[in-house]
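Ticket 4471: requesting a sanity check on a complex prediction with adenosine-5'-triphosphate. Repro inputs:
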Amino acid sequence: MANTKNYIIATLGSHTALQILKGAKDEGFRTLCICEKGKSEPYKSYGVADEIMEVEKFSADSFFKLENELIKKNAIVIPHGSFISYIGPEEVKKIKVMHYGDKGILEWESDRTKERTWLLDAGLKMPKIFKSPEEIDRPVIIKFHGAKGGFGYFIANNAKEFHERIKRYKDHEGYVIQEYIVGVPIYTHYFYSNLADELEIMSFDKRYESNADSIGRIAAKDQLDVGLETSYTITGNIPLVVRESLLPQLFEMGKNVVEKSKKLVNKGLYGPFCLESILDPKLSFYTFEISARIVAGTNPYTNGSPYTWLKYNEPMSTGRRIAREIKNAIEVGRLKDILG
Ligand code: ATP
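Returned structure tokens:
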């Protein structure tokens, strides 16, 4: 039996903290939530945190200030999307407290060029990138660097439209022009256990974005009259199951991405990750992004998904799956294999 009580599972109070902490408690760990002042209510109300630490504002600085305290408590930190965005992929490398997951892979995930090399080498199809507006010969989506949650992305069909529409965005930090794939977004949530060398598909989601998901509620004529502009600001996640015959292909894609990652960084990619794709009408997946950690799209499944039910016969969220992996590693004396 793993002595889970010797460890405390810690994360920042945001993103997927509820299911991470709940999952850790279900596996017998103590839990700690680092919250911004005034934002701890959900973690208290749902009873998922044994301890709460408060900071004025999330940042690399505020995290490093309390790191020694975390080390004393024998904490294992679980990174999630907000954790990485507040601390930054470079600063994450300096973390000394026990950290679940390989830190090196975050650099491959956060650098668009490296990410593209990794995914293309893994045999995934990706939307074409246009080097200049003059090359645009099909619908494209213009994505601004540092645009949190897809705010202000716009669509263009040719160079003329591009130049007209970009005028509205004066203070941007640069952009990428990407082929717009007409299809449906499917986000696949994987978990790769490097202890067992096994890849699992935990669940799927699609996003609920403002205002993209409500534009259809207004007649096309009115959209034009009021000069509506599409934005993709993420507001929530919608659960999804996919056509069963797509699963073999999705397992294959996940396995190839994991295999390639082993050639890029020390231990490779392990634990939860997500391939964000558009599926076109010919059933081809075009992947436009990888998240090399738990994604918020797993949040509808705190009690497990239809897929985890098949495998586990007990409630198994991605947060709980992480804690189960840590528990298994402690039991067999391989904790260092899953810490990065
Ligand atoms: P990040 O996760 O880096 O913050 P983001 O969430 O701001 O990125 P994306 O996930 O890249 O933004 O895209 C926002 C929305 O645009 C999503 O709904 C996605 O489905 C859609 N989208 C992105 N790229 C494409 C594409 N090439 N073709 C069609 N739709 C796309």
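Notes from triage: The two ends are 24 Å apart (CA to CA). Leaving this open until the requester confirms.
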